[in-house]
Amino acid sequence: MKIVDGRVVVCSPGRNFVTLKLVTDNGTHGLGDATLNGRELAVVSYLEDHVLPLLIGRDPRRIEDTWQYLYKGAYWRRGPVTMAAIGAVDMALWDIQGKALGVPVYQLLGGPSRDRVLVYGHASGRDIDETLRAVERYRELGYQAIRVQCGIPGLEGTYGVGRGDLYYEPAEPGLPPERRWSTERYLDFVPELFDRVRAEFGPEPLFLHDAHHRLTPIEAARLGKSLEPYRLFWLEDPVPAELQEGFRLIRQHTTTPLAVGEVFNTVYDCQQLIHEQLIDYIRTTVAHAGGISHLRKIASLAELYQVRTGCHGATDLSPVCLAAALHFDLSVHNFGIQEYMRHSKETDLVFPHEYTLEGGTMHPGDAPGLGVDIDEELAAQYPYQRAYLPLNRKLDGTMHSW
Ligand code: CS2
Ligand code: MG
Description:
Blueprint: E1 3-11, E2 17-24, E3 29-33, H1 40-55, H2 63-73, H3 80-101, H4 105-108, E4 117-125, H5 128-140, E5 145-150, E6 172-173, E7 178-181, H6 183-201, E8 206-210, H7 217-227, E9 234-236, H8 246-253, E10 258-260, H9 271-275, E11 281-282, H10 291-304, E12 308-309, H11 319-331, E13 338-339, H12 345-350, E14 356-358, E15 361-363, H13 376-379, E16 387-388, E17 391-394, E18 399-400
Parallel strand pairs: 4-5, 4-13, 5-8, 7-17, 8-9, 9-10, 10-11, 11-12
Antiparallel strand pairs: 1-2, 2-3, 4-15, 6-16, 14-15, 17-18
Helix pairs in contact: 1-3, 2-3, 3-10, 5-6, 6-7, 7-8
The structure holds D-mannonic acid (CS2) and magnesium ion.
């Protein structure tokens, strides 16, 4: 079996996606998600100009060797662009392998370890009342796990507050919108939010919250401590995670479970966090952490230290990445939870898929390979539109994490 063709499909059915398609000499094709929100075309060039020429003629069944060939062969290692490109190739090769053997990818990963995959939805609102109604909506849809984000009084627009029902897309065409941020207002407000949420919905639902890299370790420690009475499933990205040892300070002060990793690209970004048990969930996902092959290695290290997986699954991860993540989630032993931000209707039409959602759980389906495809004709009707994620500045204008 040989790879005879490869192309990168860029489309924008509601938001930008970059999809790698590899084709073999017997006509089998495999797909990989190479979307890097706000920097999409960098990965397109990395694939088209540097990777695709290396793949033509290679045996697609040599998945591990191709991963090592692209990782070590580049000389320059790690980073979001490189690892998104390698991740897309890896996803496509697992897709081809499953199709060639006539089995769903999860059967190649050791088979199912569970019946279905627990997912969490995203409830948000401009104020607490609106947020409570959004949580209610997800409870009616049967979700057991719900992320709760809310506007902060006195701040115009903040991370995680969607526009409209069920759908949240932070990237906007044109230049990056600038937001203003106040940690003090945020830290004073969030405990009140969860006090109301728990009072309204009781002890049973699993609630999550994303601090989105915006605190210092001691601020995160204060927030984690103040949220302990509300028993969060996890507090996500409390601090910018370049400084892995910074989590020691948070850990000293609070038992609120911590989740981090959606911006990580290799096991080296989280090795210390895992072996010092500074986190409870690792958020790396297939598209940005080197594909299924590397994500399995991260999960194996995490298993040794009782850290569970919690793959990132925002709208900027395409249905191809979600499908691949669900195959991984179904099989990996130390599974925690899967994020599922619903895609737009147009996106679901461009990417027909086998995965299903039922009562807050998902399943990748049993089609050979990943169980997802791309309608290239329909994709062509949604041309790329450069878009950026928002920026954050403190009230005094100092640049901050969004
Ligand atoms: C967020 C994302 O899903 C999450 O937990 O952190 O919405 C993130 O902001 C986007 O994926 C960035 O592209
Ligand atoms: Mg997040």
